[in-house]
Write a structure and sequence with these properties.
The protein is built from three helices and five strands. By secondary structure, it is of the alpha+beta class. The chain has two domains: about 45 residues, no CATH class; about 55 residues, HU Protein, Chain A. The longest helix is centred in the middle third of the chain and has 22 residues. It starts with 7 loop residues before the first helix and ends in a 6-residue tail after the last helix.
Length: about 100
């Protein structure tokens, strides 16, 4: 059975305990961080979280696809998407690279 993931409340409590502040201040920090990340990605197309990774806005080109039910060709329009790219240090810490 899979273990439960950390909830937002648990993260706020952990930050508060680790940084020696109250829960309200830790919650405010998390809210400000997420707001700043969204604003920066909208404005510059990228937001870097040092040691963790980066949020990147990408443009997807228009393309032709297939309707899986009918097999008919459909046009998929161009759009913007947001991706998170994990930093190499974080990736290697979580999933160690294979030795050759």
């Amino acid at each position: 059975m899979a273990e439960a993931r950390m909830t937002q409340t648990q993260l706020v409590r952990l930050l508060a305990e680790t940084c020696g502040v109250n829960n309200k201040t830790a919650r405010q920090f998390l809210d400000t961080l997420s707001e700043t990340a969204i604003k920066e990605v909208k404005k510059n197309g990228v937001f870097v979280l040092p040691g963790l990774g980066r949020l990147v806005r990408q443009e997807r080109k228009a393309r032709m696809g297939r309707n899986p039910a009918t097999g008919a060709a459909i046009k998929i329009p161009a759009k913007k998407v947001v991706k998170f790219r994990v930093a190499k240090a974080a990736k290697d810490a979580i999933v160690p690279p294979k030795k050759k």
